[in-house]
Amino acid sequence: MSPASWILACSTILLGRGTLAYDDAFARLVADSVNLLFPPVTVSAHLCRVEEEDAASLSRELSGSGLMHEIHRSSKGFERLRDPEDHRVLWVLDLECDYAIPMLRAANGSGMFGAPNKWLLLQDRRTFDGTPASDGDRDGIEETFREMAVFPDSEVFLARRLRGDFTEIRSIYRRGPLSEVVLEDRGNWTADGGVLPRDLLPTSRRRRDLAGTHLRSCLVITDPDTINHLTDYENKHIDSITKANYPWMLTMVARMNATISFRMTDSWGYKDQNGSWSGMVGLLQRGEIDIGGTGMFFIKERLDVLEYVQLYSRMRSAFIFRQPLLSMISNIFALPFQRSVWIAIGVFLLAVLALLYVSSKWEYRLGTSAYWESLNPAQQTLSDNLMVVLGAMAQQGYYYEPYRVPPRIVTLMLLITALSLYASYTANIVTLLQSTADTIKTPADLLNSPLKLGAQDIVYNRYYFSQFRDPVRKAIVEEKIQPKGHKGNWMSLEEGMRRMRTELFAIHAEVGSAYKLMQETFLEDEKCGIEQIDLLNVIDPLMVMQKHSPYREIVRNAAHRMHETGLKFREEHRFFMRRPKCQGQTGFISIGLTECYFAIVSMGYGALFSLAMLLLELLWHRWRNRPWKKDIVVEESLEIDQRLEEMQ
Q1: Element (H or E) spanning 319, and its range?
Q2: C-alpha–C-alpha distance, residues 391 and 274, integer Å
Q3: Which terminus of the chain has a lower count of CB atoms within 10 Å, N or C?
Q4: 3-class SS string, 8-25
Q5: Among 242, 331, 317, 321, which Cα is nearest to 518's?
């Protein structure tokens, strides 16, 4: 049951002073209507014509129905208008009282005609002979409420007793600040039939026809040329959320049978140091517009100055990047085999080295042909065997030529194993050179990655980046986006996508717009490995409207209806593109210094090690052939010769 029907039932309690008798049937009607169909309420009745004895009788009837209540014979108690429980209060006022009009004006000044407050106004329009009065009193009601804020969300009911036990019940509202008063037929009450509501529709459905009421809105436009392309779908990546929300606004306004005008601003609205709001939020706060025409992110501070409507825009901002190749961030030469395979290879090489050492020793002792001795003039040492093993594994060859069967078997086993491992190793290397890493998944990974970072130069990016308190996100901004003493990496979306295509680069931008440019400018193989990381960590933008707007429920119903019928998704699919599909790696992978980094580093370390060994050998040779040592040797030889002569 709707709140309107509940008020109709409650009105039957209070129409009877001097006009109706409160019998058992009447009490049962009140009890069934209120206690079974509606939540508990408090009735605050201001009835100047109720005598004390009758007030006590009425109080007993209300208590018997389980209703909390208070009955005043004056305007006393009206100061409770700001009580936090007021949404549970039904305000009842007898229009025949002298203080009725001042009380209504005070309520209007306090904003007490807006939802969720409920009012029931009583009026006895019978003449002395029992016939209904003329309709001249209707003009008086319209004149009373002509300048009052009884807008479409108000619940102000007028119960007029016209004849006998027949009571007409109407609701009073205005469609807009410049509209005339509307008296809406809500049913009637009789002693025999009770409350007969006209319908049970909620207020937001009954009053959704605003009959051309003028509404004001605002569009956030960051590019002045957007105003020329709101409906032609050109440059969909520029101000995409505004272009997507604009048809939504027109659809909802058409459903409400209203008219709308738009203002333009370049900012969603942020709080200044003096506490005032800029942009569209400021316009809503000051009451200069009724509805925001561009969705905005949910921020806690904005809840005090505007209201959000559950009409989400599928616009998200995130860091978009291509996962770098494995060779760019890892030692590609260590990746083809698992650790267990590398360990097995090491054990195998040690075994081959031991077998080759034993077999070469045995071969040299047995002796061979003169030809073999010419190739192997000296006995194989352990270092010689080590070089043979390393040369075979590295496919570089070796100078040792085995002659007898055991060393030949060992050497053949080494060569076959080296060939198999080399084929597997090189095949995996080629595959890994074309593979992307999957190691950048969190903001911390992004901070520690080799990627350069940039951000789309748009107002909400600058605002959110300045508000970060998380250490990782703050470090991303201070170290890579806006480093101190350097020019910030703020750029257009086109420049960011170009750098992302040609460099190790990630840009923070609106995802749908970035994917549109990617679909149009990237090659098929360049669309693979695309990832995104959410840095803002906010929900999708929502539609906003003025705080305590009288059109709140009507707009919400229109938004839900548009969502249910699919009109919302139609515009979203036109403006917010999804991630392009990867059709496979069809291009050629160029190998540069980056991919060969670890090989070059290994060769460099080897060269440095060889130079160090050369230096040590020179020092050793020089130490062995130092001049003062030669003199000692000569003196020692002369002494030996002299002793030999003496002995002779």
Answers
A1: strand 317-322
A2: 77
A3: C
A4: HHHHHHHCCCCCCCCCHH
A5: 321
Pairing of strands 68-72, 42-46: parallel
Rounded to an integer, what distance in angstroms lies between the CA atom of residue 500 and that of residue 290? 41
- CA 539/CA 342 separation, integer angstroms: 48
Q: Count CA atoms within 13 Å of residue 546 on its CB side.
A: 17
Rounded-to-integer distance, Cα 158 and Cα 472, Å: 61
- The alpha carbon of residue 10 and the mean position of all alpha carbons in its chain are separated, in whole angstroms, by 46
CA distance 499 to 476: 18
Please check the confidence at residue 11 and state whether its pLDDT lies above 60. Answer: no
CA 303 to each of CA 159, 268, 285, 546: distance values in angstroms, whole numbers, following the listed order: 37, 14, 11, 11
Cα→Cα distances 456→216, 476, 525, 621, 624, Å: 30, 15, 25, 66, 70
pLDDT at 375: 64
Compute how many other C-beta atoms are within 10 angstroms of the C-beta atom of residue 253.
Answer: 19
For the record, the structure tokens of 137 come out as 């009193």
Task: Put the strands of the sheet holding 181-190 in their side by side order.
Answer: 68-72, 42-46, 89-94, 118-124, 155-163, 166-174, 181-190, 194-197
CA distance 521 to 156: 60
Cα–Cα nearest to 445, from 410, 419, 476, 491: 476
Q: Which helix (H) or strand (E) holds 181?
A: strand 181-190
Other beta carbons less than 10 A from residue 66's beta carbon:
11
H or E element: which one contains 542?
Answer: strand 542-546
Please state the three-class secondary structure of 626-645 as a single string.
Answer: CHHHHHHHHHHHHHHHHHHH
Question: Taking a C-beta distance cutoff of 8 angstroms, is the pair 42, 16 a contact?
Answer: no
Q: Among candidates 521, 504, 510, 527, which has minimal Cα distance to 446? A: 504
Structure tokens at 370: 């003169």
Which 3-state string (H, E, C) describes 402-413? Answer: CCCHHHHHHHHH
Strands (E) in 47-137, as ranges, are 68-72, 89-94, 118-124
Place of tokens 């995104």: 532
Strand partners, 215: 260
Can you tell me the distance from the alpha carbon of 648 to that of 645, in angstroms, rounded to the nearest whole number? 5
How far are the Cα atoms of 148, 150, 202, 550 from residue 175, in angstroms, in the given order?
Answer: 12, 8, 16, 9
| Whole-number pLDDT of residue 405 | 83
Using pLDDT thresholds of 50, 70 and 90, give the confidence band for residue 286. very high
Tokens of 174: 């205005």
Q: What is the CA radius of gyration of the chain?
A: 45
The CA distance from 183 to 158, in Å, is 9
Q: Which helix (H) or strand (E) holds 155?
A: strand 155-163
Q: Each residue of 475-501: pLDDT tens digit?
A: 999 999 998 888 889 999 999 999 999
327-373 pLDDT tens trace: 666 777 777 888 899 999 999 999 999 998 888 888 777 766 666 66
Question: What pTM did the predictor assign?
Answer: 0.74
- The single-letter code of the amino acid at 178 is L
Cβ-count burial of 184 within 10 angstroms (0-12 exposed, 13-18 middle, 19+ buried)? middle
Q: What pLDDT digit, counting tens, does each position of 404-451 carry?
A: 788 889 888 998 998 999 888 888 887 777 777 778 889 999 999 889
Q: Which of 36-40, 221-225, 508-512, 606-610 is predicted with the least confidence, judged by mean pLDDT?
A: 36-40
> Which structure tokens are listed for 75?
């305007």
Residue 81: strand, helix, or coil? helix
What value does the mean pLDDT of the chain take?
81
Residue 395: pLDDT band with limits 50, 70, 90: confident
> Any idea which of 176-185, 380-389, 512-521, 560-569 has the lowest mean pLDDT?
380-389
